[in-house]
Amino acid sequence: MFALRRAPTSPSNRRLLSTLAVLEHRGGQISASSLPALTAASKLGGPVTAFVAGTDSAAIAALAAKLTGVQKVLHVENAKYDKGMPENFAPLLVANVKAGGFTHVVGAHSAFGKNILPRVAALLDVQAVSDITGIVDANTFVRPIYAGNAIATVKSAQAVNVITVRGTAFPAATEEGASAAEVAKAPEDPDTEMLTEWVGENLATSERPDLSTATKVVSGGRGLKDRENFEKYMQPLADALGAAIGASRAAVDAGFADNSLQVGQTGKVVAPQLYMAVGISGAIQHLAGMKDSKVIAAINKDADAPIFQVADVGLVADLFQAVPELTEKLKE
Amino acid sequence: MTTLRILVPIKRVLDYALKPRIASSGKSIDLTGQKMSLNPFDELSIEASVRLREAHPARIADILAFSAGPAKSQDALRTAMAMGADRGLLVDAGVESDLEPLAVAKILKMVVQKEECNLVILGKQSIDDDAGQTGQMLAGLLGWGQATQAAELTLEGDNITVVKEVDGGTETVRGKLPMVVTTDLRLNEPRYASLPNIMKAKKKKLDKVALAEYGAGLERRLEVLQVVEPPPRQGGGKVEDVGGLVAKLKELGAI
Question: Which of A3, B16, B41, B66 is deepest in the core (most CB within 10 A)?
């Protein structure tokens, strides 16, 4: 081939790559979900500026400045940003993206990120890229579609790329080997009018971790037969493992478990270190919600259940005997 | 108190129970001959609108079901009308239509303005491209308040109170009309369309408009380079008893 190789001339290639990473915080700490997003931001290749807003943003900014890959931290001290309301947080980000000439805006694919970043993208007139699991280059991203049943690689030629990151797909940024980054006040605070009012919240106060972010999940299916059994067998097992509790759609539809526990294509998509499926056959609808788990264990009395085709370890047994025995063994 | 003109955008997608097949181009999903259904989250939006009418019969002036996509999306619109939407609007984007959330949000903005809607209820995401963006983008373009992933929705006067699903629990926000709300699975249980209602829905008004009427700027911004199957998982085999299970989990570093 004698053809001349030319670099593509997309707008983002003509500008110098620089990334704004939006950090979430709660109770004076940077949220765990933001740390993998920071790693993804570093992988894009350009300098990373972390962004924090709200009361005590200076203290959070100081924490962010110690993290690997952060070159600079911008913060906005204004209590109006405490609740992460999209109507004023999105214009805040847009103003600072424009002021700083950033080519990439990165955040976690968390409730906060999902709520705010598409609004930011629309205000910048760009198509956002949701829930990425891989970065090919600064303009090319990998993301699951069809609840993870297919993996798409998409290329953007947009001047700004607005990206949310799947937390389980990237390691969390740490303080290891980091040099202290510069901390500065963000240049813009448009202080846009609040169109919705934050009324309150009801966050799980139990010791049990949240299903979406738990490192271990035990999930029950139709095999548990009724709601009493679901509670009687699954709760002690979850406690023994320090795991969150999930359920199959069949278990939810049959009323064994609350809707909010449903794992699957139409429920929550989880990717914990350990996913233990109890009395779950493994329908496509369910597998779509958990097959990116690191280790899958299955207990089912039907040796031909499809769940065994994906399980790293399977036990063919009556769950009503196996689960209490397992719970005891785990406590030891 | 204002009357409500509700817009319910819906999408026709591959049925949730089917496993998607990669098209021979390697750049999309092959939908030919596949069972298509109303996106499950959109069923919740229609149900939510109909329940608002049931709770406030005098205040709901209109429930407009909308879809942008291939001509066959009218099947999904008929379903929405059988569930209780008053009328339908189809933006025919052609067989190969592959509109991105930003384009859909731009079309919706124009529909909202033309139809003078003051409440838009959308699914939190479609189960095909899983973007979860359209509602937020629309709210941004309109400059309206937004409440995403609604698990409860209450109308009092001109205030809408929404209990939202967030990581680790719920959060409650309150906004004034006009507003954009996206629905989560816990919001309600959609009704089945009864046969008489399906027959009645055939007589309801369904307008069809060509995509070109919505102007320029709707082209794709992201190029799909490839679509592949995820790496298959290999089952790791079975163990004899609970002791074996615990030993294997320890070996795998899972406990």
Answer: B66
Tokens representing B140 are 């941004």
Question: Could you tell me if the ipTM is greater than 0.85?
Answer: yes
A249 interfaces chain B, CB cutoff of 8 Å:
no
Residue A13 CB contacts under 8 Å (≥ 6 apart), including other chains:
A7, A139
Of B127, B222, B244, the CB nearest to A266: B127
Using alpha carbons, select from B149, B171, B121 the residue that is nearest to residue A84: B171
Task: Please list, residue by residue across A32-58, b when 16 or more beta carbons sit within 10 angstroms of its beta carbon and e when fewer do.
Answer: ebbbbbbbbbbbbebbbbbbbbbeebe
Closest among A48, A23, A28 to A178, alpha carbons compared: A48
Write the residue in A116, A122, A212 that is nearest to B105 by C-beta: A122
pTM of the model: 0.91
| Residue A198, beta-bridge partner list | B173
**Structure-token pair, residue B71:** 């001509």
Query: Within the 153-172 window of chain B, which residues sit less than 8 Å (CB to CB) from chain A?
Result: 161, 164-172
- Residue by residue, pLDDT tens for chain A (332 residues) are 444 444 444 444 456 899 999 999 999 999 988 999 999 999 999 999 999 999 999 999 999 999 999 999 999 999 999 999 999 999 999 999 999 999 999 999 999 999 999 999 999 999 999 999 999 999 999 999 998 889 999 999 999 999 999 988 898 999 988 788 999 999 999 999 999 999 999 886 667 888 877 899 999 999 999 999 999 999 999 999 999 999 999 998 899 998 779 998 777 888 899 999 999 999 988 998 898 899 999 999 999 999 999 999 999 999 999 999 999 999 98
Look-up of token digits 């030319």: A6
Hey, is the C-beta of A127 within 8 angstroms of any chain B C-beta?
A: yes
